[in-house]
């Protein structure tokens, strides 16, 4: 499909957000330092994990004609100092949902995370 309607793309994004809510746990996003894997089937190096943030259930806050907005995450403690270069979103079943590049796919006020510091995501809008 080279071109899809806005409504079709929004339906795909909402299906993605529903996928995030699947499973018995809450969806999470983990920020990592180092090189991002080539694709989501490559395991992330847990030694490079800086912080894990948890989404509430359900994670969808709002669906509009231009985006699906997710609720803010919890506030979590940074477990390792480093520069966040990428993040991986997992659904409630622990399955990989998406990888995000910090700076282009997701923006942090400060990418230099310090052990003992805190981080949360105020707003995530998935756009078709």
Care to give the gist of this entry?
With 128 residues, the chain is of the alpha+beta class. It is 12% helix and 31% strand.
Annotate the secondary structure layout:
Layout: H1 6-21, E1 28-32, E2 49-54, E3 60-63, E4 68-70, E5 76-77, E6 82-83, E7 86-90, E8 96-101, E9 112-113, E10 118-119, E11 124-126
Antiparallel strand pairs: 1-2, 1-7, 3-4, 4-11, 5-10, 6-9, 7-8
In words, what does this structure look like?
The structure is a single chain. This protein is of the alpha+beta class. The protein is built from 1 helix and 11 strands, in the order αβββββββββββ. The protein has one helix at residues 6-21, and strands at residues 28-32, 49-54, 60-63, 68-70, 76-77, 82-83, 86-90, 96-101, 112-113, 118-119, 124-126. Strands 2-1-7-8 form a 4-stranded antiparallel sheet, covered by helices on one side. A hairpin with a 4-residue loop joins strand 3 and strand 4. The longest helix has 16 residues, at 6-21. The protein starts with 5 loop residues before the first helix and ends with a strand. The model has no long low-confidence stretch (mean pLDDT 91).
């Amino acid at each position: 499909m080279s071109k899809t309607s806005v409504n079709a793309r929004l339906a795909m994004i909402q299906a993605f957000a529903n996928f995030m809510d699947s499973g018995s746990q809450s969806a999470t996003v983990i920020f990592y330092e180092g090189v991002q894997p080539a694709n989501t089937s490559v395991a992330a190096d847990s030694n490079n994990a800086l912080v894990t943030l948890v989404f509430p259930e359900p994670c969808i806050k709002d669906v509009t004609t231009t985006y699906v907005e997710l609720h803010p995450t919890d506030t979590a403690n940074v477990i390792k100092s480093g520069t966040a270069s990428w993040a991986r979103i997992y659904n409630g079943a622990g399955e990989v949902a998406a990888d995000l590049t910090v700076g282009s796919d997701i923006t942090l006020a400060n990418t230099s995370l310090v052990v003992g510091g805190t981080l949360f995501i105020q707003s995530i809008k998935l756009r078709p």
